[in-house]
Amino acid sequence: RGRKSKPLSDSKPAGQAKDAVVGVIMGSHSDMPVLQAGINILKTLNIPFETHITSAHRTPDWMSEYIHGAMPRGIQVLIAAAGGAAHLPGMAASHTAIPVIGVPVKPTIGDGTDSVLSILNMPRGVPVATVGVNNSTNAALLAARIVGLKEGQIQKALIEYADKSTAEVMEREAAMNE
Ligand code: RP5
Questions:
Q1: Hey, which family's this protein in (predicted)?
Q2: Which residues line ligand 1 (CB under 6 A)?
Q3: Of all atoms in ligand 1, which is nearest to the CA of residue 30?
Q4: CATH number for the domain including 136?
């Protein structure tokens, strides 16, 4: 049930690096716009990543197959986005020993509290690191910090990114008081 099939023309992969160390997974293609900011960060920091739609509800067998295969293939961290009954990050964490960062996606109904609680309120023993609603930027930066522990170049890029954002704020501060 729900085996991976040929991609639709409107679901062109955002990144499928052969040497991917970060797996970006989502419950639906409709989550992709929320993930774009985080994907841009991964690209900026030169972190090889791959993207997949692995729905916990619509494609449970494919989700399980992908997550079980991720660590043996060299994926070090999973970023998992889902909205509403957001089970994907928790299911991912139950199928692997690598860190899972959950991105709660704001659903069409409500403010996203259901997504946050679905991802945050995990039973003891199955941890998921949870970022704010739609905050794929922080998910990518947290993934970079984890991967950067072993990869000096990534840690360096991350420090440069932080320095740049500090400089931007200080520039705005200076301009405000000119
Ligand atoms: C979740 O249901 C997805 O992660 C998405 O955020 C939400 C709605 O999915 P669609 O109905 O737009 O496919 O599984």
A1: In the C-terminal section; belongs to the AIR carboxylase family. Class I subfamily.
A2: 26-28, 30-31, 55, 57, 82-84, 105
A3: 12
A4: 3.40.50.1970
DSSP H helical ranges for the chain: 32-44, 60-70, 88-95, 113-120, 136-148, 152-176
Q: Is residue 150 assigned to a domain?
A: yes
Cα of 56 from ligand 1 centre, angstroms: 10
Terminal-to-terminal C-alpha distance of the chain: 63
* Tokens 């740049």, located at residue: 164
- Encode pLDDT of 9-44 as tens digits: 444 545 677 899 999 999 999 999 999 999 999 999
pTM, full prediction: 0.91
Mutate to test the pocket of ligand 1, among 10, 28, 32, 88 (most ligand atoms within 8 A of CB): 28
ipTM value: 0.96
**What tens digit of pLDDT does each residue of 108-134 get?**
999 999 999 999 999 999 999 999 999
